[in-house]
What we know:
Layout: H1 9-18, H2 21-28, H3 32-46, E1 51-54, E2 57-60, H4 62-82, E3 94-98, H5 101-116, E4 123-127, H6 135-138, E5 144-148, E6 157-164, E7 166-171, H7 181-186, E8 188-192, H8 201-208, E9 214-219, H9 222-232, E10 236-239, H10 240-246, E11 252-255, E12 264-270, H11 278-298
Parallel strand pairs: 3-4, 3-5, 8-9
Antiparallel strand pairs: 1-2, 5-12, 6-12, 7-10, 7-11
Helix pairs in contact: 1-2, 1-4, 2-3, 5-11
Amino acid sequence: MESVDTGLLDHLEALLHAASVSDAAKQRGLSPSAMSRVLTRLREQLGDPLLVRAGHRLVRTPRAERLREELPGHLDAIRRLLARPTARPRRGRPFRVRAADAVAGMLGPPLLRELETQLADVSLVFLGEGDESVEALRDGSVDLDLGVQGELGAEIVVRPLFDDHMVGLQPTAAELDHAELDAYCAAEHVVVSRRGCARGPVDERLAALGRSRRVPLVVGSYHDAARITATAGFLAMLPASLAKTMQTYLPVRAFSLPVPTPPIHFAAAWHPRFQDDPCHRALREALLHLVARVRPTIA
């Protein structure tokens, strides 16, 4: 049976039950000639005639008799195995989510609580952003990527979540209005870059005005930048949604940048291998429900 095309198994069951090509054809919605061709293929793959002529009717060979008795139970198991899941799973698993540390802090707890309303025994493992390789999505070591998505490849599924914008961050006790261009350029800045780059879109806008800012410090995370702003007085720049979170536990406050910067398109990305996985679908639904609830207050 290992070499049999599994698509023929239902036809085989009908033939063995009816012991008649015409009756099996009616049962399966085929023409007698089409069912006759199916029988020929089955004989070739199984190496047994299965049904042989006995006067005006067909009779089963000994192997066909054994198959008639045993096949239905195996077919039921195969159908259950191959059936598309329809019921929502009750138990979850650890989900590996790649996101910036500040994103994990902002979305992690409420996403877990949202997911726990759907699944038991679920956990979220947040992995820090690194090289952002698409291979981690392809090989399944990352279930979901949250953030600004670059070029991930045509097969990766990307779902927009919300748009954000950059704001400045200064100590709560700062006396200057750093939304003013002169004060902004005169201040010391800490820049967030995992690649160690001190320049970004805001510097391009400043250069167009013949201005520049001082960037003596570059760090790898928004959380570090916010703490440096709170403790050392450096100005930072981060998405407005994260700035709102930072203001809840650090002595910092957001301000509008003196020059415009491009919008931030925040999205989720995953590999289509997980598209129809019930647990992964529950994770995505929980994320979308959470974003829909908090989107009005994000930016």
